[in-house]
Amino acid sequence: MTYEEALLWIHNRLKFGSRPGLIRVEALLERIGNPHVGLPIVHIGGTNGKGSTVAFLRGLLEGQGLRVGTFTSPFITTFNERISINQQPISDESLIRLVERVKPLAEEMDQNTEIAGITEFELITVLMFLHFKEQQVDVALVEVGLGGLLDSTNVIVDPLATAITTIGLDHMDILGDTLEKIAVQKAGIIKPHAPVIIGDLPIEARDVMIDVARNKEAPAFIFDESYGYQELGGAGFEFWTGESRLQLTQPLIGHHQFHNASVALMTYFAIAPQLGLSQDQTLLQSALDKVRWPGRMEVMSHEPLIVIDGAHNEPAVKVLVDNIQRDFVDKKVTILFAAINTKDISSMLTMLREAVDNRLYMTTFDYPSAVPISKYVDKFPSEQLHADWPTAFETLKGELSPDDVLIVTGSLYFISQVRDYITKSEGNT
């Protein structure tokens, strides 16, 4: 196979859509020797903040000289980055070899109606476990795809720890229409006796997590009880847990990143005894200094100031609006937005309009479920609608004054395309 053929075969499994359940992924894993069994894994779920928390925790563990695998989605730059070791995406050659190994098994499964139709995400999950097993990672940080209980990553049975970053209303057609129902799905990754780090959750979701942890005898580290943080101004914050108090800085933009960094730090502290990790403040700070996470409040240009942010659902837009009101209060903010049709766009647009009034511009992009510009015609004046996003971007960029900021936001799939466009057109790296 060529690399393009391997990717095409993976992506063609999209026709099976999102199909919660473990029967297919378990069947394929069984056929290739269950590579996930025995892997040292930290399983990370939540509505938002998973990727940033993975980035912080990866940095902390790499700072200890460990070989750290990360499984994240969606990708921002290249498909291969979804499966990475020490920030190096899986090579094209390795991906081809692994696809050639699982393809005949998956196609054999397609002949059995009970396990037929393994999905794209399930396949990528299996490829990830195979790669990390072969490469003998010291720790694998595995991000949940959707939900938790029935997500294909939940074949993990004995993790080092689990973490639940945030809970909000998203994917309600699959996970449920209340915070409690969604929390039950997210809590599905909590495993018996494995530490669980619980982020800053709404009280009804928090109570679900605590009950599940208690029933599974999983030690629970609860935000604002077992650990927390206090902002110190600028990039500084004080992280605390038990008797430990560390004064640190973190490099990512946005006040929500103090929370994500704290969830990562608490997870690090929770697994430190098992892995023999140092808790020295100087070493931890050196590790945090190197953390990067593309596509999340990422500054693409300083003059003029251009920021891209994958605020792809209602909770993420709330965070974006908070960051605008706190960090850009002295600037005129313009937003270019595009979304996919599985999201509650109306509430997202209401919040964005309140933040920037008539400086909210709608566009669309090349993706199967992208919301077409026609959907906005009755809701926005024609001058705020742009069918071609590169033209819209260049036009809005050209209108910026030195005190203005342009934020491009919405679907992470959209942000990926915008980031690639900016990087190539301006020679950024």
TrEMBL record:
GO CC terms on record? Answer: cytoplasm
Cofactor dependence is on:
Mg(2+)
Q: What is its EC number?
A: 6.3.2.17
**Which residue ranges does the record assign to the Mur ligase C-terminal domain?**
295-411
PROSITE patterns referenced in this protein's UniProt entry, alphabetically? FOLYLPOLYGLU_SYNT_1 (PS01011), FOLYLPOLYGLU_SYNT_2 (PS01012)
Q: Which InterPro entries match?
A: Folylpolyglutamate_synth (IPR001645), Folylpolyglutamate_synth_CS (IPR018109), Mur-like_cat_sf (IPR036565), Mur_ligase_C (IPR004101), Mur_ligase_C_dom_sf (IPR036615), Mur_ligase_cen (IPR013221)
Q: Does the keyword Ligase apply?
A: yes
Q: Which UniProt keywords apply?
A: ATP-binding, Ligase, Magnesium, Metal-binding, Nucleotide-binding
Reaction it catalyzes: (6S)-5,6,7,8-tetrahydrofolyl-(gamma-L-Glu)(n) + L-glutamate + ATP = (6S)-5,6,7,8-tetrahydrofolyl-(gamma-L-Glu)(n+1) + ADP + phosphate + H(+)
Q: Which Pfam families match?
A: Mur_ligase_C, Mur_ligase_M
Signal peptide range equals: none
UniProt GO molecular function:
ATP binding; dihydrofolate synthase activity; metal ion binding; tetrahydrofolylpolyglutamate synthase activity
Domain Mur ligase central: residue ranges: 44-266
- Which family does the record claim for this protein? Belongs to the folylpolyglutamate synthase family.
UniProt-recorded name of the protein: tetrahydrofolate synthase
Protein source organism: Vagococcus zengguangii
* Species classification: Bacteria, Bacillati, Bacillota, Bacilli, Lactobacillales
